[in-house]
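Format notes (please read before filing issues)

Several people have asked whether sequences and structure tokens are stored in separate files. They are not. Every record keeps both together, in the order shown below: the sequence lines, then the token lines. Line labels are part of the format and must not be stripped during preprocessing.
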Amino acid sequence: MNKVYCWYPKLPNVGHASMDISFGAGGGKAEYVSWWPRGQGDKGTPGAKPLKPAEQFGAATPDYAHDVAAEGRSPDKAVVIDCLDEDRMRAKYYEMKKDLTYNMTVKNCASAVANVLLAGGACLSFDCLNYAKKAVWTPAETLTFALLINSEARVIKAGIAKGFKPAMQWTMPSFGSRGW
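Then the structure lines:
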């Protein structure tokens, strides 16, 4: 089971998206996906330097508790998704973590979650791929994407069962080729 979390913007925070892969499965399986700048751009840090749209920092938040503390509250919404290939999702996240940079417009928390969801099988649905053509992902768009994935669960599960052949190739420039 996977869980997508969405924090809507609430000053001074800009909002956030994250997810649990294999939620509750324990060490070796469970993985927390959260893409947020560390250091000067760290959210919740008094006096933190504001992020500029193209500014880059090292990224990846260790766990859900860190995000809740940084946002100052629990997520506004959470969506459970159980139709995706969790091994592919973990593999995608491990690949993404090789380049721990953050860019507020093209390589942000929401686009990171979207990329992991696509790798897990959302790419098997034409409707999901069509929605994924976002220029800039926001936490709210990631939440909508998670709900769309659930509505396309039958198509996605059938695609996984047939050998995982995507509806078409799709590349988001910020994280490179999908390589499904």
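For reference, the curators noted about this record: The first strand starts at residue 2 and ends at 7. Residues 22 and 37 are 24 Å apart (CA to CA).
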